[in-house]
């Protein structure tokens, strides 16, 4: 494995030194491009109080291409499917090298506060979210309690 | 400020902007690699990472975007404000890395001579570091060699002293003895004369008286008769007259008849000298010479002296490693290239060429001085070799020292640098650096650069490596190459850390630790002082270094006592360190004062003023040079030593012949058996010998004196055996050796012999001689064996030096004891001795062993030889044959006997071939009992083996035997032929010939597949017409050249059909010119007629009898039997020439008689089967039955050691040539396996090898070597 690019080193350092509130990202011991991420559920969202584990991987050509991020903890969210994949534009076509790990994670946190059922990934969830938001939020809270707490 | 910084940070690389480019959207990014990475080449667009605006890329690419000048100003401003260093890469342009071809800021890499990116460079430096530490390990492992040689040098010094002492004692002894002998003899002779005079006088007086009386009587009678007969007085009666007449008649008769037996009384006494008095005087006058055995040829020395032998080639190699290293740094000096073999990148072939020549030069001397102890050889060998080194470096050093200002040296460097292919700077090799006087290795610790680094980087994790490739590494250890101006000042912390580190390193050396503390303390202030002109400190450092190093080197060099150079007390630490772990110089020593690198040393030096130090240094440096030069000179013209050693010779007065190690050491049990048997026989026979006198006479009459004598020797020896059974084998071998032609001495002797024949009066002298001679024999006796027997010289030498004195005493005792174990004497000297023996023995009262005496006498004479003939070997026969007196009848008979025994052997071995003959012979043999009891093999041994071992005669004998074998029906012819051969062979001294070999005579071929070219040649053989046959393995053909290397023909092609090959390996040619080829990958042997036409093939893959697994080398013997190295079956198989399986021997393993990957094989004309037991790194010698006769060699690269030996060859004298493949050299051994010499090294120049395969020896003494990777045959 080639030497880690300076940018990754810098980002990692900064993540360690000035962690984003509610977000922790720790590089794996054996692979500095792989991060173990924990995102706290935003306040005033159904995910509040939950600790959501994610994995984040910086591909070879990062920052020219977007990091790959996936939820490990199950979550009830219209833009996140059962496998934890995230529907977020900046992780896809809207990626910009000016973005960083922290901005990505912040975006994800923001996504938790503001689900966007109009651009769904998990159709059933999105459907319910659109049809019966209360029910959906209840489910989300339930899932959060079940999967994202006490662990 | 933070925001300010953020503004100067590129959003992509999160680094400070480098060459910011302004996009039309007003966002800026570094040009490389950030903006570059954003380019969408398909659409020729750039999308701004910040605002996602898309911009067309200008025609020239992203470079075409305007620079953000404002930003750049800000950047500069920021630098000014913060005072931080400018980005080192600013202003640089990215290039493609030449290794990973990524775009990056590349810089030059000294490792690969390319511009490469940091990343790759880091990796390369890692590699370098690893390599260095590996080499360092090697160096460390190898250090003991130097230490060994130090101890050796010390030991040698002692030895020399004891040696000289014992020699002078010996001289004293000899002097005493000579004196006494002379005195005794003189007195005796005088007494004899007096006695003789007395008796003669007495007889003469009485005779005179008688005569007078007679005359008186007669006169009175006459008077009476005159008076009375004429007077007619008749006083006489007839009776009285008659009586008177009778009386007168008687008187007249008496007078008539009386004749004074002149002879009886006029016998004059005459002093008869056994030797020409002139010569005698000469002999006495030059009764001894001091001969310094010339050791000089580093390869030539025998194994026996291992004790004293400095690690020979190995050491050199290790040295060469150093050299190599050194060379890296300082190629300018590379007069010689020593490549390092095990380094993957071989920098250059080692060239030992010079050395070879040298050895050769000395080689001749060696032959001459052969009598001498092997030890001396060693001495000198190493000495010379070393002295060479030293001289070389001395030269350099002196040069360096001569121009006391270092600049001149510098200049030199400059001049020479261009030679090196890459003129890379050698940051560590500055004029200040001390170098090892022998190796020229720079001491890293002394390099200012290194010192600086160490100081800058106190935490530097690594100790300095001694290994030279260090330069590239250094920069890495210290992250910043350009030292900030302040670096010079070393903080105390740094120092302490450094010291700590050093101490840690010092753990290896115990003493230094304590020592180090002191230097460290001192260290501090010199360091600060360093800012001030440092030279003084340096010089002192140098000087200490020099002394320590020189000591070090001394040991290498040799006899120079290591501590010739006075060491200042301050240096103790370095010295001790040095002693301990020799030159852990850099690493350990770093711990100690030495490497405290320089710094410590320097500190010690500090107290001196510059001048002082300098002067000191200069004076000191001179000292070593002197010593050095001395040694060198000694090496070159071994005068001093020569004188010293000569006494040795004297001691062996008559023994010179023993010198040349004779071919064979057969001390098998069988042998001993047979010998004992023989003894008994001899005894019987010895009784028989009829008239001693006649024998004696004959002996004297000198019939083919050599032969007769040799016979003597033998006989006596055998009789000796009776006395001393254990010794008998020894003696035997001695005999055989006795006739070595090679010694100068011997040959001289021979010439003088004729004149030496003398009447047998010599009791006294001869006795004396015998004694001295016997000592030689004795020496052999007490030793333990093989090498010993055969090579008396060696053992003598080795022994001698080892326990100089005691040995001598022992010898003396021995001598007395054995005084007349004549056998040894006789041999010992070949002719001279024998002669003496023949002459002397009769009278000499001292000979206690009558049987021996008789035997010797009897055998010596050709007449008695008859008796012997039966039981005796061809040897005896031979002598008879040559002797003029021999009767043809007896000759025939003898031949028959000899033959029959051979036949017997053959029969036993190969089936009943000449049974009738055999039987006859047994019957005819007087000693049927003995023969019956002995196995036929033993028989053979008794016949053949002893013969073989002797050089001239023996070999010729062997020839004779061969001939006989070849044509069993015409024994007489065979013997005659043998005699001829013997005659022809006499006088050649293959040994010296081999010793002289050093230069390639010519070579054949190069890589290719045309005629005369080779691709991986393997086997090589010499045909009966001296043609050269080469197995051109990967061209799947056999090529034949004439003896001068001109291409004659080729045959064969790739395939598995008849006459086709698949990577053939071994070739051999039998006596009728048929080619026998080991068709390796076809697992078969093919036979071709002399014109190259396929005759037959046999064998296939498998492990059964007659099957092969990759047959490799092969050989044939005189009878056409084919011996095949069945490599993967780890055995030798023997076939008849028609391919019929005869036998096999060997199995996988490393025990005696076992083989692992036998590669090549050779069969001597004495039917010794020599096999290169490759993976066991040894040569084993079998008899044709597969019984191990001897084996020699172990893994290693010293003399007589092997690494995967491959080709073997044996000449008609029994010398064995081994292609020591792993060491890329040829080694030549005596037939008993004692080392004679080595030549060659790795490389592709003339006389260098890369991957040796087969070797062959031509009848005229050339050695053909198959140099596989160079695709050529070299002829030496």
Automatic annotation (TrEMBL), chain A:
The active site is at 87 (glycyl thioester intermediate). PROSITE patterns: UBC_1. Keywords: ATP-binding, Nucleotide-binding, Transferase, Ubl conjugation pathway. The lineage of its organism: Eukaryota, Metazoa, Ecdysozoa, Arthropoda, Hexapoda. SMART domains: UBCc. PANTHER family: UBIQUITIN-CONJUGATING ENZYME E2 (PTHR24067). GO terms for cellular component: UBC13-MMS2 complex. CDD domains: UBCc_UBE2N (cd23813). Coiled coil: none annotated. GO terms for molecular function: ATP binding; transferase activity. It comes from Ceutorhynchus assimilis. GO terms for biological process: protein ubiquitination. Belongs to the ubiquitin-conjugating enzyme family. It holds the Pfam family UQ_con. This is UBC core domain-containing protein. Residues 7-143 form the UBC core domain.
TrEMBL record, chain B:
The keyword Coiled coil applies. This is RING finger protein nhl-1. Residues 670-688 have a biased composition (Acidic residues). It comes from the Eukaryota. Residues 385-397 have a biased composition (Basic residues). GO terms for molecular function: ubiquitin protein ligase activity; zinc ion binding. Residues 92-135 form the B box-type domain. PROSITE patterns: NHL, ZF_BBOX, ZF_RING_2. Residues 507-519, 534-551, 583-603, 840-851, 922-950 have a biased composition (Low complexity). InterPro entries: 6-blade_b-propeller_TolB-like, NHL_repeat, TRIM-NHL_E3_ligases, Znf_B-box, Znf_C3HC4_RING-type, Znf_RING, Znf_RING/FYVE/PHD.
